[in-house]
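fwd from M.: "can u put these together and see what the complex looks like"

so here's what she sent:
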Amino acid sequence: MKELVVISGKGGTGKTSITASFAALARDAVVADCDVDAADLHLLLSPEIRERREFKCGVEAVIRAADCTSCGKCEKFCRFDAIRKTVEGEEKALFVVDALSCEGCGVCARFCPAGAIDLVERSGGEWFISECRFGPMIHAQLGIGGENSGKLVSIVRDAARELAVKSGRRLVIVDGPPGIGCPVIASVAGADVVLAATEPTLSGEHDVERALSLARRFGAILMVCVNKWDLNPELTGRIEHAARAAGAEVVGRIGYDRTVTEAQIAGKCVVEHSDGPAARDIRTLWENVLRRLD
Amino acid sequence: MILAVASGKGGTGKTTVAVGLALSARGGASLLDCDVEEPNCHIFVKPEILRREPVMVPIPKVDKDACNSCGQCSEFCRFHAIVALKTEPLVFPELCHGCGGCAWICPRGAIREIRREIGAVEVGMNGGLRFIQGIMNVGQAMSPPVIRAVKAAALEGNSEHDRVMIVDCPPGTACPMVAAVRGSDAVVLVTEPTPFGLHDLRLAAETVRKLGIPFGVAINRSDCGDGRVEDYCGAEKIPILLRIPERRDMAEGYSRGESILSAAPEYREPLLRLLEETSRMAVENKKP
């Protein structure tokens, strides 16, 4: 079983459109959406949810006002500015925890002399085992302002791999998140092949370089494709040259094509929707990727 | 006024709008690039960097001679960043949130905190614009400390550049986005009129609502998709503050690292109106 992860560095370079088309072309792969805080793949693959699971992402502190002696120790100890004093003046000072800032370390609860702080488990979102028209799909929705998105990514990937092994499927295709932070690290660690999709802009060039230098640390086969390459052919060449120098294989170019947006509006993959230039380019890209996967 | 430029979906034009706003505001403005995993504003602003400071986070260091392997640090740490299996504890720096708990609870005082570099903050200028960016080192997992360092650098002392502070935020709705948006007076959510744009806009709008910050929307490539983003904003009474239709020359300018004002100077007026409108929203929001 092989695992292919699509990342980009910069957002909006076409990861999800490419992944969805790969799912259509691969037919019997397991598809996983690891861009858990802006998950969009389901909008193209319309999966039917078979099982929903809660994502437990640790704890958050809650102060019981009745037991609080207003000593303010929690506020002093918290390194994340998550505890605020809400009443000024003569009244009893009230301390409250801002759930969005609380990292759930437990320091305040441990050091509260009155034992007035509880650590309650928090739900960090949901993940789903689904079936789409091209096969099984694992996806997730991180809660608003969610912590530990890397952990949710790992859950989604593990579930996808497990499903592939159980059902005898040979490929897992992962739609990764943008950036280079914890969800990206969780997406690429241990993957067989990482495909970085970028665009011929100075931002795209800068960001894919950082994404590749991250992915390289994990020992995967690296591939690069430039989307909307004809927007700036010269820069496309430069990005491809740098990618090769960084040890990545250049596996394709996708031309700018308005039918990519049309397909998205129709809720379809590019290769299902039309046989335009982008669809043809993605087919060629897939063949090149597949050759390396075997 | 601190104005955050955010989005759910990446690649919708946050940087284009943030740079455009900062350059339109001219004097008295700062641009903060808080998209520290992939900071791009510098490409368009081309600032002269005047100083660079490392961003350090605390991690535990165990004094092996003082440690008696009691394991309390390991039991306390919820992030598995310090692990003691009946041995002296092992520290996993990438997992450490820097809460300080292990050092405080160690009964033998065997843990002290040392500082580890995870990125840098750079401060520069271009013309009258002050520029501050955070850069997270490749391989680091947690960007919020770098984001907080960018904001701290911007708010340090009295600056003549704090009339308008534009914050370019990371995409998504997870903790990095919240760290960047938090503390701002108003937010512009940049989106595009596509199903992905709409889906992620809803999540971003919900996040900003939860933070209690007034916000409006800017629609980039406003003629490329369908009308569902406009319908959503209408139904939710979210003001649409700016529309930027798709133009090949602007896309090419962007690809070469030119700001929206060099490719399309006529956007200065609409950008200034956006600044006025969001500053009015911020004032309105602060009224009791």
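replying to her w this: Chain A touches chain B through 62 residues (CB under 8 Å).
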